[in-house]
Write a structure and sequence with these properties.
- With about 500 residues, the protein is of the alpha/beta class.
- It contains 21 helices and twelve strands.
- The chain has helices at about 10-20, 35-40, 50-60, 65-75, 95-110, 130-135, 155-165, 185-200, 215-225, 245-250, 265-275, 295, 300-315, 320-335, 345-355, 365-370, 385-395, 410-420, 430-435, 440-445, 460-470; strands spanning about 5, 5-10, 45-50, 80-85, 115, 140-145, 170-175, 205-210, 230, 260, 480-485, 490-495.
- A hairpin with a 2-residue loop joins strand 11 (about 480-485) and strand 12 (about 490-495).
C-alpha cells in the first residue's frame, strides 16, 4: 500500500519572519528562494496577510500589493496563501461589508489563491462575509478555528465550530494554534471528530507554532487522525516562537505510512538561502527558544514582547511576572477569548493597566469595546460589573448584533479620503491601503517613489557595530590619509580613527 500524501504549507515568506523577527524581512531577501519554493512540491506557500501589509508600509517603504504581484510572478506553479482577519481584514477594526468584498476581490486579482479566514473571538458572524467574498471570486476559502484552552473550550465545541464553517462554504478547515497550546491528544480528538462527523473528504490543515516544544508530536498525531496539510517553516527560519522545521517534519514521516513528496534537494537550497539571510535581522530576533509558561498564561510570543515594551516605557520592567498572573484574570472577565491579534493586544494591555494603576481603575477604549460586544461574542459570559463600567466610560450601549451590521457604507468616503492624499495613485488598492492603515499610508504614499528599504544589516555592518560596541572600532576602520601644508611645506599624515 502506497504512503498517504501529506500536503505542506511553507510559511517562511510570511509567518516565520513575522514570528521570529517582527515581520521585517525585505522582499529582496526572499526573491532568491522563490524558484526553489515554487518547485519543491508544497501544497501552498503562505506569503501575505497577517502583519506583512502593515510592516511593508510602516517599516520597509514597500507597496504590499506589488509584493503580492511579485510573488505571483516568481511562483507561477504555487497556490499562494494569506491570513485574513475576517471582518477586520488586515487592520484593527471592523470594516463595512463592501470594503471586505473589495479587499478580497483585489487580493484575488493581484494573485492570491488561498484565503485563511479567522476571527480573534471565533465568532462565526465575523467570518461570514469574508468567506462569502472569497467564494464569489473563485478563491479557496479556508475557515479557521483559533485553538485555545479554558474551562469552556471542549473537543465537541471545536467540532461544532468546524460544522458552522463548512456550512458557510469552507473549502477546507484550518486548526490554528498560534500559541503552541495544541497538545497531541486533543489534536487527534478534534481532527478525528471532524472527519467522523462531516466526512473523510473534509480537508483539514493544521497550523502550529513551536514555542512550547510539544507541537512536532502534535503534527504527527494530527496526521494519524486524518489531517491533510500541515504548516512548517524551512529549518533555517524555524523554532522558537516560530514553527516546526520543514525538512525535519518530512524526515520524521519516514516509515510511518505517510510522506510529503517534497523535493529534498530544493529544500536544502531554500534552507541555505535563508541561512545566509537570517543573521541580517538579528536585532529584531526574539530571544525565546522554548517557553512552557505559555501553558499557564496562554501568552503568544508577539503579545509577550508587546507587554514587555509597554512596561519598559513606564519604567516598570520588573513587574512582568505580575502582568503574567493578571492576563488569565482579564481573559476570564472578558469571556475567555483566544489570544490572537487583536484580542491578545487588548487583553494584554488591560492587564498592564491593571498592574500599574490598580485592577480596572482604568479601562482601555479597546477593552471597553470588547466588554460591550463591539468585537463580537466570546464563548464565555463577560463580567457584568465590567460591562456596566465599560458602558459608563464609553457612553454607549452593549450590543448583541454582528458588529459590522452597525456600520454605514463607507467605500465612497474612503475613496474621497485617499484621493486627497499626495502620492495617491488612483487605484482601489491604494484606497484599501489607506483604509487599513490611515495613520501610516499617507506618509508611505509620499515616499513610495524612493523604493523599498532593507532594514537588515550586512555582515560588514554587523561586524562594525560589534567592534564599536566592544571598543575595538579601529579593527574595522581604516586610517584616513590627509595631505597637510604647514609654512609652505607639504607632507602626508595618517590619522587613526579615534585620534
Amino acid at each position: 500500500m502506497s504512503p498517504r500524501q501529506i500536503g505542506v504549507t511553507e510559511v517562511a515568506l510570511r509567518d516565520a519572519h513575522q514570528s521570529l523577527m517582527a515581520t521585517r524581512m525585505a522582499m529582496e531577501d526572499m526573491v532568491g528562494a522563490c524558484e526553489d519554493i515554487d518547485n519543491a512540491g508544497y501544497w501552498s506557500v503562505e506569503c501575505w496577510g497577517g502583519a506583512t501589509f502593515d510592516a511593508c508600509i510602516r517599516f520597509l517603504n514597500e507597496d504590499p500589493w506589488k509584493r503580492l504581484r511579485t510573488f505571483r510572478e516568481l511562483m507561477p506553479n504555487s497556490r499562494l496563501q494569506m491570513l485574513l482577519r475576517g471582518q477586520n481584514l488586515l487592520g484593527y477594526r471592523h470594516y463595512e461589508d463592501m470594503v471586505v468584498d473589495k479587499f478580497v476581490e483585489k487580493s484575488k486579482e493581484n494573485g492570491m489563491d488561498v484565503f485563511r479566514v479567522f476571527d480573534a473571538l471565533n465568532d462565526p458572524r465575523n467570518l461570514e462575509r469574508a468567506m462569502s467574498a472569497v467564494k464569489q471570486v473563485g478563491g479557496h476559502a479556508q475557515g479557521t478555528i483559533c485553538y485555545t484552552t479554558s474551562p469552556l473550550h471542549t473537543v465537541e465545541g471545536y467540532i461544532e465550530q468546524a460544522g458552522r464553517l463548512l456550512n458557510m462554504g469552507a473549502d477546507s478547515i484550518a486548526l490554528k494554534d498560534m500559541a503552541a497550546l495544541l497538545k497531541p491528544q486533543p489534536a487527534y480528538d478534534i481532527i478525528r471528530g471532524i472527519k467522523d462527523t462531516y466526512g473523510e473528504e473534509t480537508q483539514i490543515n493544521v497550523h502550529c507554532h513551536s514555542t512550547t516544544g510539544v507541537t512536532m508530536v502534535t503534527l504527527l498525531k494530527a496526521i494519524e487522525a486524518g489531517a491533510d496539510v500541515v504548516d512548517t517553516a524551512i529549518s533555517s527560519m524555524s523554532l522558537g516562537p516560530g514553527h516546526n522545521p520543514t525538512e525535519s517534519f518530512a524526515e520524521m514521516l519516514e516509515g510511518t505510512g505517510f510522506e510529503t513528496g517534497l523535493d529534498m534537494h530544493r529544500l536544502i537550497n531554500i534552507r541555505d538561502h535563508f541561512k545566509q539571510v537570517r543573521p541580517k535581522y538579528a536585532e529584531f530576533e526574539s530571544k525565546t527558544l522554548v517557553d512552557t509558561n505559555i501553558f499557564l498564561s496562554q501568552i503568544p510570543g508577539g503579545m509577550l514582547s508587546n507587554m514587555e515594551g509597554q512596561l519598559r516605557a513606564q519604567g516598570a520592567a520588573d513587574r512582568m511576572d505580575e502582568v503574567m498572573l493578571e492576563v488569565p484574570v482579564v481573559r476570564k472577565d472578558a469571556g475567555y477569548p483566544p489570544l490572537v491579534t487583536p484580542s491578545s493586544q487588548i487583553v494584554g494591555t488591560q492587564a498592564v493597566f491593571n498592574v500599574l494603576m490598580g485592577r480596572y481603575k482604568v479601562l482601555t477604549a479597546e477593552f471597553a469595546d470588547l466588554m460591550l460586544g463591539y468585537y463580537g461574542e466570546c464563548i464565555g459570559e463577560r463580567n457584568p460589573d465590567l460591562i456596566r463600567q465599560a458602558e459608563a466610560q464609553a457612553r454607549k450601549e452593549p450590543i448583541t448584533v454582528r458588529p459590522a451590521d452597525l456600520l454605514e457604507p463607507e467605500w465612497d468616503q474612503l475613496r474621497a479620503e485617499a484621493e486627497s492624499l499626495p502620492g495617491f495613485d488612483g487605484t482601489d488598492e491604494d484606497v484599501l491601503t489607506n483604509a487599513l492603515f490611515p495613520g501610516v499610508a499617507p506618509g508611505f504614499f509620499t515616499t513610495r517613489d524612493e523604493g523599498p528599504k532593507n532594514v537588515g544589516k550586512t555582515q560588514e555592518q554587523l561586524a562594525r557595530e560589534k567592534a564599536v560596541a566592544s571598543g575595538q572600532a579601529n579593527a574595522v576602520r581604516e586610517p584616513i590619509t590627509y595631505k597637510i601644508t604647514v609654512g609652505g611645506r607639504s607632507q602626508t599624515v595618517k590619522v587613526e580613527p579615534g585620534e
